[in-house]
Amino acid sequence: MVIDILIIDALSAGSGRRVTSRDAIGCGPRSVAGVLEASGFSCKIRRAEDVLTGRSGIRGFRHLAISAMTMDAPSVRRIIRAWRRHHQGVVLLGGPIATGGKQTLISLKPTLMVVGEGERTLDELIRAGFFEDAADLHAIDGIGFMDHDNPVFTAPRRRLTSQELDSYRPSITRIMDYPAYQASRVYVEVLRGCSNFRRTTLELPDGRVCIDCGNCDSPSLADRLDCPAGIPPGCGFCSVPSTWGPPRERSEQAIVDEVTGLLDLGVHRIVLEAPDFLDYRRGHVPQTDPCSPAANLEAIESLLSRLASLPQIAEGNAHLSIENVKACLFTDEVAALIAKYVHGTSPNIGLETGSGSHMRSIGKGGSPEDVVRAVRAARHHGMSPFVYLIYGLPGENEQTAEESIRLMKLLSDAGAERIILYGFQPLPGSAFAAFPPASAKSHLGRRLRRAAEDINRQKKTHYVGRVIRGVAAEPSLTHKGYTMVYPLGEGPIMTVLGGYSPGTVMKVRVVKPLSAGLLLGEVLREDDRDWDVQ
Fold it and tell me: Do both 158 and 297 map to the same domain?
């Protein structure tokens, strides 16, 4: 049987294999599958690395669709070349990688590239006969393609409203295409877009610089959309506001329906996905102020109470979590509400830099003090917050690095479970797109990494002897004969001796840290009562 569309999930594949977030399944590919299925097309999802290693074949499909990020260009190139050796069907490319524009189109040579939100564009392509080679591509907004040797980009597509976004439902059944989906963190989109429409005040490589027009702090939320200097909105390193615009939420019912369907198929770990979960139904449209008004506690409680009452979650056989939150919105009241329904979650709080002046200069809302307060609130209510920083950011210097190291230690003492440090990477569509990436060899980068690693390794020793309920996932890539185990709730990544089927729920006693991010564990027998499960 020939299947209409092969969807490749290349997100985080990099040059061929995911190194981090191996237990994560994002929203994008299932959203593509949902549009296709609603139009009567058959489809399957495959991981990029499974295709590139031969674990999953590409024969038996008519057309190819790829979802990827900018960093995934090497994998995308290899997949397209392999596809064209055996197929005549079209190659559709979308996701954050499409913000690369003309350069990406010329370099990777897809048949067509979807720029921005894909649901309506894909819907129009189907209706226009694209997969039957009958579409007038010039008449469809939000795409790029080669007209002979000339790259063509049609008019930008208008962003979907909340109501339009809600009309598109991601595929639920296609979650079963992912190996070890039962043990993975499965992301369910709550809202799209970001409310931070402040901008960097650093001079950009092309000479653009803030002219202090006042729009970024205007009481008029609509005025914040406009920048006379042409500087993209949001934190300088991030492309979310410029690509996806202000927040637009899905309906409560759509979210509950999707989570219910996934749990019924055996998913154990649900993550409510949003650039900031606390933007959910907050304030007026467009919501372009990252810190005011406060979070909508009534709407959040309504959603979380319904999700927490689903049988699998209520009985402790599945876990619900919330990741991204802005510190300036994460008050003690918010922490208490989330803790009431989402037990032991690990909110992810972006700090980026421990310097208040550096934070303001890159366009981030809030302050380092907000982050410390948010971590304390989270810990007070039984949560295990993670804090994110970035080394190599434009504007970084000896002073900002020293302030970041001091704040890392303060945050660890305040209750941060983990300090996550990334190297800066310029993203198309962001204000910092033309700055050079962070160097792993830089003096400041080494200092920051060492400080974070020391804190995280010390945190891991606190788990020794504790027993954690986990879900078996995949064979370890670094320890032959071992299986990776992810926590059923919140907690560390573990590896245990032996082979276990994906989705097997087990109790694991932590033996020792193997690294700053991995623990060695031993599986306990079901009749072993000498433990206190976390």
Answer: no
